[in-house]
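Backbone geometry tokens:
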Amino acid sequence: MADFYKTFSGNSQYRSHLRVLQGAQNRAGNSTVISGTEWIEKTSGSGYLTYNSGNTGGCFGDLAFGAIAWAPYDFTAYSSKQIGSGSDTVVHNSNGTKIAAGTYAANDSAGGNFGSANGSWSLGLTTIVDTPDTPTSVACAYVSDTQISTSWSRPTVTNDAPNTSQIRTKTNGAAAVELASISVTTSVTISAAANQKIIAAVRESNGTGTSAWSADSAAVYTSPAAPTALTATKDASLDINLAFTPNVGFTEHQHVVEHGTVSGGVTTWDGTELATLVAGTSTYKHVAPNAAQLHVYRVFARNLDVGALASSKVTSNTVQLLVAPNKPTLPALGPFVDKAKDFTVPWSHNSVDTTPQTAYELGDSTNGGSTWGTTGKVTSTVSSKSFTASTYAAGVALTVRVRTWGEATTGGADGTGASAWSDLSTVTFKTRPVVTITGPADASTYTKSALMVNLGFTQLESATFVNATIKVYDATPTLLETLVSATRAATLMDTAVNNGESYTVKVTVRDSNGLVSDEVVSGFSVAYTLPVAAVVTAIYLPDSGIGQLDIAVADPDASEAAATLVTITRKINGAVETVLYEYPKAASLTILDMTPTINGTNNYTITTISADGATTGTPVEMVTAEGEWGFISTGEGYSEIIKFGGNFAFDITPTVDSTLIETAGRARPVALYGTTGGLEVSGSCVVVEGYGSTIEEIEALLKIPAKGCYRDPSGRRMFGLIVGQVGRENSAVGSFSYVVTETS
């Protein structure tokens, strides 16, 4: 066998030994000639062995060659005897491989030492393998709450190269736990969990042995555990004490306290941290928080390393500090109230600690506050006190004050948690006014279409009438009109009542004391005579584009009323315009409509009106079909008119209001469109003497500073600003161009 006993900087010393097993069989196959079962070795001589132990047969010359073997220099399993020179040395490379093979000889000699022939053989030297050195620079890094990255360095000498690595960790200060061996590497990701402080060490092994454990790495931390059981309680000093249970598995952390306030169910957190608490601290006192607020807190753990990982946040209960409310607010009560009605004194509870009213005390005085009556402390959340009707006589001035309690039972004005007394408020009791409807009287028949209301008024303490609120309803009943009138007599309503229908008037009045009467009601029916209807003929005048209405109004017969006024309205494409308003009636009238449509339908209604406001309407239709001429009218009543149309042509330019807005992130501006716009019509024509209006007439009209009405054969009819230009080629021929811009 071959082996090495020691390495020196990658070299090894190798020495040869010869050992012989006692009892070995000789070459001739004879039985054992040497007794014993041990190896014996020769440590002196020139490489051959002589037996001198008293046995007969006496030599080893006949030993079988296969009984010879090699052993290392430090062989100690038996009583070793070195044989041979004992000084042969083989040098190895620094990586443990041999430089040259050694050849060793065992020589036979005369006298029968090893037989009759020499023998020699070579030894093959294996690569030296040494125990790995200890790894260095072990470091851990946080990847996630479930993974930690660990890395290290190892020496570069190759004859101690490891073939396995072992990792051990210490978690939260506990004893080291060795993880499973892994194939040799210099980094590995190990499992972790939240709330851990992890320290790692590494060692390495090969076939020769195992290194020592490395120095521990610096600690790495995962997210700390959130605290639990967070409670907030107030104390007698109106401070708020926090307590919680820390759950972090290591000391390198702090707990952070945040403060918020609650209003209307919405929590607003402060912009800065309220406090940071060192590890091992589980309480905090918030000194003198605002008693007017509802307080809430949250706490979380945060690591102290550069990663500063934090736990989730735990929110406390809300805490209301209890202090006495401010004095309540009394509204102005008067100056006067109706003594015959229940009277209620309201107030506003002005909490400091946001707790609602739990009780009140109201004081009353009828001598200006010289002496006071009181309700005593009344447990109630209602912020008002009612006095029954007629408790006080007319003319009595009542002064009141009030104080309230919240949930506080100490402090305040008297040590019971009460507020201070409110400011005083005084009201004088009076009798309400009474109103009557004298016309139209209840259950009467009203004989006019124009509704006139007359009222009566009384007040026992001589207060004066201020105004009346009059409402008119039809029979369904639907409110048709509400009018506030400053007069009691002959208030003319806007609503015209219809013949044969029923109506109701409801009225209240206000007096100089500010008191309002009860509402009174008058229901009445309407019966009156309708005026005589007009007889109408409508004629279109193509030379001027005017509509002529010939109206005849006959005298009434026995079933009709006389007409006193005439009103004319015109409807074009659904739009209604007034042509004539309440013009005095005559037996015959000719009315000129200066701006009808010249290509379309004009629907007129001629309404006759009687002296009592009754009306009768007569419809009439005028259809026009102008296909050649255009007209522009202007001046008072649109009475100035020009007519044009030679080679007539026009253009229409509608517009929509819009604007462009530059916006971030858009390569082009955004267009915003309005709901309004404009319309512009431009046109031109030839002016021929004796054919339509003259150049002089057109020029004169363009100089009139007034809105114009433009009409053309397309049926277009628009009002607006008109500008134009005229030209003359010769005495008989000229030109006219214009632009019409629609205006309101």
DSSP finds one helix and 55 strands in the chain. The two ends are 124 Å apart (CA to CA). The chain has a mean pLDDT of 82. Helices lie at 695-702.
